[in-house]
Structures are given as structure tokens and as C-alpha cells.
Design brief:
Rossmann fold, 8-stranded mixed β-sheet, 16 helices
Length: about 425
């Protein structure tokens, strides 16, 4: 059976029937947020990552700026919204209101500030929307102190294993089903292709999402005269996930200035098409300091087995790092290490500005990397793992080993978020 639903911007095709909401890690995070905080929860993340579904799963009232009736109500002002939501009626539990796509309103910050300051003692508020919300939020943040940000990521091995609220940085290892692993690696972690698990659906979904991001979202927030060149750049970056970026080389390929390339890549980064990680160089002799590495947000579109494996792990690590930061577990950052002797470790996770975990990624090779051993000695990182994608799950805690160790991706990633 094939069901076609108009989403407001393009058609979503559900080849196996409508997709139901499968509980997510973020459902638990948002519920916990309101049990401890009066601040609003801002939920940001890539387009189609599942923000709306998770928010609607826990809310009392849902208002979407793209819905004409909801828009008319919002435009009447905070008092009208409060009356419609019956905020002046005594209840056992505060109602939870979700404002979706509210950033499309011209005066959304000041209106939201007024609503929160007047009614925060009577309601709980979530603000979410497309990836543009993150861009608009940063442009003069008059709401500072009134919200906490939660960055949503696609499904991961850890989230398949558990969706409960994280109480610790790492968890006990947990084996996920083979069909779940294959679906995640093949179709990616975005909810619709991951849960649908159809090759034709995934192909159509990927094409529509990319077109919408490049030709709609970016047009709305940036004055780019030649969108076709940006489209070419996005194609090049799709082929170079996990590689260092040399801006001057990209500029020559496109026939534009280096500043234009830097500006466009920054825009693609902010719109969650991909992300950059910077080199870690403190206390490392002859370390590279400038060239960032680029990774796509959707590993399922990558053809090169090595690049796909590294991007798959990179996306998992970024999710863990950003979630740890959002939950207040400390200050974490994802970087990489490479020196002028071409010794490299794919990733280093810093904890409170000190190297904590070193990670080298291999598709199949389980011969321990000499660079991993070298850089653990140099950085004094607590852990050093060589993560092998094709290695079968081992029911053992990776974090009990303090020396460089070859570990299965299925085991290590199950211990993260």
C-alpha cells in the first residue's frame, strides 16, 4: 500500500503505510527538562530529524505557524493564545505548548519573550522548527536566560539500544538486532528512511530533502546570487566527507573567491547539511592547525566504504558530544589530530578542554594503528580505541581498557547516546 501525504512543501511517500512515532531519546530528555526547569526548551536540528514528532508526542497543545488557523491565533497576541489554551483554568499539571516554525514570524523573539514572561508560571513551552530556527536564534538573542537548547540528531546505535534519560556519560554495552544495524547503516538515521527501510523510498527521500535544503531553506536566509554554484559545492562535499578541506582548491574548482567558499561552507554547516571538526594541536609538536575536516550529516548517501564508515562514526560521536553538552555533563568538543609527519588519529573527544578519548576508524582492519598508540602517549588521553565497522559485537565494556584497544563499532557505539 502506498500513502501520499502533503507535508506543506513536498509530498512524503510512505510505501509501507503511515509512519508511527517510535519513542526517542529526546522524548525522555524533554520530559526531564520540564521536571527541573522553568525555561523554555528550544529543539533544533536538521530538517526531517524528527523534532516535530517528538515534541507532539509529549505536548498538550500544538501550534504550527504554517497552519493558517494557528497563525491567525498567534497573530492575535499572547493573551489570545493564553485564552485559547485555557491557561487561566486551574489544572493539576501545567499544560505544555509547542510553537512550531514560529521563527517565520517577523517579531517572533519579542512576542515569545512577552508570552514567556507573562505565562511561564502557568505553562511549559517548547519552540521548534526547521534548521533555520538555529540560524535565526543566534542573530541577536534577546531570549537569553529564558531557554535551554537541545540539539536533535538522527537515530544512532545507542538510541536503538535505549531511549531512557542518560544518567552517565557512557553506558553498559548492549547488542542491537542485526536488522536494526543494517537498516541504520544502509538507510541512515533520519527517522523516515530508517523506519521505512525501502531502497526506493530512501532514494526519493534523499533527493527531495537535498533539493529542499539547497533551493528553499538556504534561499530564505542568505542572499546567494548563484545558487547553482552552491549546488555544485554541495555535490563536491558529498563526495569528500571525512576529508580535510583546502579552501583554496575548492575556490579554484568553482571559480570563486576563497571567502565565498568559506561563507558557503559555513552556511551549509549551520543548515546541518554537514559539519566541520577542527584539528587539536595543543602540546603536539608539528601539529596541523588550520585545515578542518568535513562530514556529511547523512552517511547513507556516501559511496566510498572507508568514507562512509568514518562518517558513520563521526555522526555518532557528534551526537554524543552535543548531547553531553546540552545535558550539562561538562564541556566536550570533537576534534581530530594530524601532524606534519602525516601521523593522524581520526577523532579526539576533549572533556573540559583536555583530550579524553582518541578514536581511529577502520572498515575491517584490526591491526592496531601506530598513530593511535603515539598520540595517546603524547596527549595522555584516558582512552584510545580503534573502531572496526565489520567486527562482530563483543559483550564487553570498552571503557575498562585504558590502553589502545581494537573494539567493534557495534560495541563502542552502543555505549554512547
Amino acid at each position: 500500500m502506498c500513502i501520499v501525504k502533503w507535508s506543506g512543501l513536498f509530498y512524503d511517500v510512505y510505501e509501507n503505510g503511515p509512519m508511527e512515532h517510535r519513542p526517542r531519546l529526546y522524548d525522555s530528555i524533554l520530559k526531564d527538562h520540564f521536571s527541573h526547569n522553568r525555561q523554555m526548551a528550544f529543539v533544533s536540528g536538521p530538517r526531517q530529524v524528527g523534532k516535530t514528532n517528538s515534541c507532539k508526542a509529549i505536548c498538550t497543545h500544538y501550534l504550527n505557524w504554517d497552519n493558517i488557523n494557528d497563525r491567525r491565533l498567534i497573530l492575535q497576541g499572547p493573551a489570545a493564545v493564553a485564552e485559547q489554551m485555557q491557561l487561566n483554568v486551574l489544572t493539576e499539571k501545567k499544560p505544555l505548548i509547542v510553537f512550531d516554525e514560529l521563527h517565520k514570524q517577523k517579531m517572533w523573539r519579542s512576542n515569545l519573550k512577552g508570552f514567556f514572561d507573562t505565562y511561564s508560571d502557568k505553562t511549559q513551552i517548547i519552540v521548534t522548527g526547521s534548521s533555520r530556527l538555529d540560524v535565526y536564534r543566534r542573530a541577536g538573542d534577546s531570549l537569553m536566560g529564558r531557554y535551554f537548547i537541545y540539539r536533535m540528531h538522527p537515530w544512532s546505535v545507542g538510541e536503538i539500544a535505549r531511549t531512557s534519560l542518560p544518567k552517565t556519560l557512557v553506558h553498559k554495552p548492549e547488542k542491537i538486532e542485526e536488522k536494526e544495524w543494517k537498516a541504520l547503516y544502509t538507510h541512515g538515521g533520519y527517522p523516515e528512511p530508517f523506519l521505512n527501510r525501502s531502497t526506493t523510498f530512501t532514494t526519493k527521500w534523499q533527493s527531495q530533502r537535498r533539493e529542499l535544503l539547497i533551493k528553499s531553506d538556504i534561499r530564505d536566509i542568505a542572499d546567494i546570487k548563484d545558487i547553482a554554484l552552491l549546488d555544485v559545492l554541495s555535490t563536491i562535499l558529498n563526495e569528500r566527507s571525512s576529508q580535510q578541506l583546502i579552501y583554496s582548491n575548492l575556490a579554484k574548482e568553482l571559480g570563486v573567491s576563497v571567502d565565498s567558499v568559506k561563507r558557503w561552507i559555513d552556511l551549509l554547516n549551520r543548515m546541518h547539511y554537514g559539519f566541520l571538526i577542527r584539528p587539536w594541536f595543543k602540546n603536539i609538536n608539528k601539529a596541523l592547525r588550520k585545515e578542518p575536516k568535513w562530514f556529511l550529516r547523512d552517511w547513507s548517501t556516501i559511496e566510498s566504504p572507508g568514507a562512509k564508515a568514518e562518517t558513520f562514526v563521526a555522526c555518532h560521536l557528534l551526537k554524543a558530544v552535543e548531547c553531553w553538552n546540552d545535558l550539562g555533563f561538562g564541556h566536550f568538543e570533537l576534534c581530530y589530530i594530524r601532524d606534519k609527519l602525516k601521523r593522524e588519529v581520526d577523532f579526539v573527544i576533549t572533556k573540559d578542554k583536555r583530550p579524553w578519548i582518541l578514536i581511529e576508524v577502520k572498515k575491517a582492519n584490526d591491526s592496531l594503528s601506530k598513530s593511535l598508540v603515539h598520540f595517546q602517549t603524547v596527549t595522555q588521553a584516558e582512552y584510545a580505541f580503534q573502531v572496526v565497522l565489520d567486527k562482530p559485537y563483543v559483550d564487553a565494556d570498552c571503557f575498562k581498557s585504558k590502553t589502545p584497544t581494537v573494539v567493534p563499532a557495534r560495541t563502542l557505539l552502543s555505549q554512547l547516546l
